[in-house]
Write a structure and sequence with these properties.
seven-stranded mixed beta sheet, VC0802-like, alpha/beta, 2 domains, Rossmann fold, binds S-adenosylmethionine
């Protein structure tokens, strides 16, 4: 199959950042192309100059390197005039032309109010259409490809595929999480999503262990601390505000009234987590200081992005971290993602090796 374009999903309002990101990733491999994106649409198209080699494109451009894109797809065809009376026949014909089988199929829409209105249509359409695909032997659990039908309306659809290993496993690229009833704030979902989407299962087991120690800078009321306590860690919560009483009753939290930019632990800890609302470079310098000073081995933190040049700012922070850690010969892994539960911010995890 020769893709018409690559399709990237994002949070509405972050099309510019997603476009900058795919342009940078493709330019690094001399893939030339142009962008089609509408503000607040929740998706971006990257149109590479033909001829396009799908296998090569997929090998060079890695979803795990993407910060702002929630999903990374290849579009085989865009249909704008699906007949109301029979959508199945033309869709099946277009899908068969790809000469592929699919591990699974996702019925999706942009993450916009318009998109939400289409969710009941997608639900109704999904069962008969999946049966139609099965009848044509197009579903094959061994296939490395997933089929995505991305509906802009009940008659307009992007027929797309993603390689399972090089895409988000979540429908619409969104990890749905239930708010834990006893967590003190909704922020808790940011750290939970960060751990569950950025770290693979082995990393979650290796790096989030019973009895580990952590410092939470800007901890109140305790949503992030709750995630660490829930993983049986011992946490020092640094803030001048008040922590949630029930969380303190766990006996795993020590409350310290101090300035998060000045506090340092007496003994090194495993994790530093930080959700203080401050300029991103200020936070970046602080985290780098903890890592290079040996005060922690792992860090999870938020970079708030209220400015216009959000993509450039994230790149500057990433570059600063790289220069600092490299100058101390420290090997590390960094994950940065604009999570579903992030708004004007991105979440980062750094693991020292
Ligand atoms: C967004 S809230 C943190 C929410 C928290 N992560 C949660 O899940 O409940 C930011 C917190 O940082 C604290 N903060 C801001 N500047 C600080 C500083 N210099 N030192 C310590 N805490 C600070 C604020 O008091 C506030 O409680």
């Amino acid at each position: 199959m020769t893709p018409v374009c690559s399709l990237l999903y994002c949070r509405p309002g972050f099309e510019k950042e997603t476009a900058s990101e795919i342009m940078q990733l493709t330019q690094a491999h001399n893939i030339i192309g142009y962008i089609k994106a509408k503000p607040d649409s929740g998706y971006v198209g990257f149109y590479p100059t033909p001829p396009v080699d799908l296998a090569e494109f997929n090998r060079l451009i890695k979803y795990e390197k993407m910060i702002f894109a929630r999903q990374f797809l290849f579009v085989s065809e865009i249909i704008n005039n699906l007949p109301v009376k029979d959508r199945v026949t033309p869709l099946l014909a277009a899908i068969q032309k790809m000469e592929l089988t699919f591990n699974n199929i996702f019925f999706e829409t942009p993450d916009t109010n318009e998109g939400k209105k289409l969710s009941s249509f997608c639900k109704k359409f999904s069962t008969p259409f999946t049966i139609a695909l099965e009848r044509k032997n197009l579903i094959n659990k061994k296939s490395e490809w997933r089929l995505h039908l991305f509906f802009l309306s009940s008659s307009a659809v992007y027929i797309s595929i993603s390689q399972i290993e090089n895409s988000s496993p979540e429908i619409m690229g969104i990890k749905r999480l239930h708010f834990p009833k006893t967590a003190p704030s909704r922020s808790t979902l940011k750290l939970e999503e960060a751990f569950k989407t950025m770290l693979n299962e082995k990393e979650q087991n290796d790096y989030l262990k019973n009895g580990m120690t952590a410092v939470d800078l800007g901890a109140c009321p305790g949503g992030w601390t709750w995630q660490l306590v829930n993983r049986s860690m011992l946490v020092s919560a640094i803030d001048n505000g008040a922590m949630d009483k029930a969380l303190m009753e766990s006996g795993q939290v020590k409350e310290i009234k101090a300035d998060g930019f000045k506090y340092l632990p007496e003994k090194p800890v495993d994790w530093l987590v930080c959700d203080m609302v401050e300029r991103p470079m200020h936070i970046t310098r602080l985290i780098s200081k903890w890592l290079t000073g040996g005060h922690c081995k792992y860090a999870a933190f938020n970079l708030k992005l209220p400015m216009k040049k959000r993509y450039d700012m994230v790149m500057d922070c990433k570059e600063y971290i790289s220069q600092e850690l490299n100058s101390f010969n420290i090997s590390y892994k960094i994950y940065i993602k604009h999570l579903y539960h992030d708004r004007e911010e991105v979440t980062c995890i750094i693991l020292l090796k």
